[in-house]
Amino acid sequence: MNFVRIAIAIAVGGMPVSAQPLLTGVWASLQHEDQIERGPGPELGDYLGLPVNDAARLRAESWDPSRLTLQEHQCRVHIVSYIYRGPLNLRIWDEKDPETQQLIAIHNYISTYEQSRTIWMDGRPHPSPNAPHTFMGFSTGKWEGDMLTVNTTHIKMGWLRRNGLPESDQATLTEHFIRHGNYMTHVSLIADPVYLTEPLIRTEDFVLAAQDAANWLWPCEYVEEILNRPKGQVPNFLPGKNPFLKEFPARFGIPEETALGGAETMYPEYQRKLKTMPRPGGKK
Amino acid sequence: MKGLLVVLAASFSLSAQDIEVLPVQGSVYMLAGAGANVTLQVGRSGVLLVDTPAPALSGKVIAAIRKLSEKPVRYIINTAADADHVGGNESLAKVFGSATEVSVVNTPGATATQTVAILAHQKLLDRMSAPGASRPPWPTVAWPTDTFVGDEKEVYYNGEGIQILHQPAAHTDGDSIVYFRRSDVVSAGDIFNATSYPVIDLERGGSLQGVIAGLNRILDLAIPAHHEEGGTYVIPGHGRICDEFDVLEYRDMVTIIRDRIQALIKNGMTLEQVKAARPTLDYDPQYGAATGAWTTDMFVEAAYRSLTRKK
Ligand SMILES: [Zn+2]
Prior knowledge:
A: 284 residues, Lipocalin, B: 311 residues, alpha/beta, six-stranded mixed beta sheet, 25% strand, globular, binds zinc ion
């Protein structure tokens, strides 16, 4: 650890608290991991390595990208469990009680969609199930050694992958922020009782930036993207009618069944099964 | 105001522990835990309720209201003629007024007559007063006192305009959406039931298209504050406090399911074949039910019958 550690033992109720590595600073997103999915975007019909169920598959099959042209969809935000994967600049700072210097919250400002996120560190409970959900959800955190662990509930509906795979508004998120010098690893575990059969674990890396980066300014404003569309129309593909889903397995020589993902495709053992499966185009 | 409180609530338990009071925005609160959500508007003029839960819960609802205000209850607005939305009309109207005399606070000897107006669309009154052979009418004291027959009724109360917007042939034929213009909150009733597939009561004039039209009307009313979040809040008939985006996802779901069932009907499928095709499969883990008052089967059947019904 070659960064300066601020090692001030703060007496809290007479108990010394060990110092935590500060996450404070401006962090730039490194896109080397899962770059194709995160940059240009995933292929339609590529659910590989995701523990999705049949309900998630049908939603993705029905998803027509033109849905994003509807006025209310145009300004939707990447939900908290996805937003760290996009191109973003992330500013993190601590909020402390001015009198006692106890940590109240760790704040995130995420440049994409101008999202402000608060991670409460003061032990407060999560709100009632009847409280509203937001794109960033409601987060509480605690330091576990050198790792910040965050639990988030009250997240809005969003996507697991930008090809229509959904994440329901019943999902909960556990995150770990781990600093290694000028780098930070963000680990997320999504549990979704509606669309996942097992938790989905993903990671992204960040590098400390020397200066604050440009941010988006002003909230999104919708425009009319499709003229004369009948009111209330929702673009979607009827089951079995999506013409694009087979392109991915055909192009990459992957069995169609494999492309549909599922928990099994997350694990290394699946490679052995894959060797026995016929590939499109007769390859093995 | 203590004297008034005692007069109004003397015969009810004041325990409100099972009813959760959630501030929504401006003057509007949501009471959760009484079956259907109860919307409350509280201000300098008094108290207004949207929907009233089962009589057994009236005491708890009253206690919850009295935590926020001891002023008179002037209006009850009903969004639908279901027991979970009008069931407390009688007991609450009795307690809160119904032409009873109350003493005027700090004015010795003076009394005033307090009444509670129950507002709803005329069709809702019809469903309560003449529900047909299969169910008994509601007692007259539970009926709406002020009805309207057009698209809309407007009242001004607690410093804001309130629009009661009739949505024809939706959940039933007597549904209204209530829009609090200054607080910027929509109380949607069962046109937007965030915990299940929409309940389409064909027997009482409901239709699938009407529910979709109602959801689109809410989208028209709602303006998000920032990136499709916040701004106008929406209280569903059942479920958590929502905003436009939540209604949007729900509207998309009902519309997509409509498109699928419509296509299956066009292909000549019978109701049993449509059910077997599972047109709701992708939404069932969240909204479906195999048992209970409104199962997935019942929803698909109502949607099918609604779409195949002769106009
Ligand atoms: Zn209801």
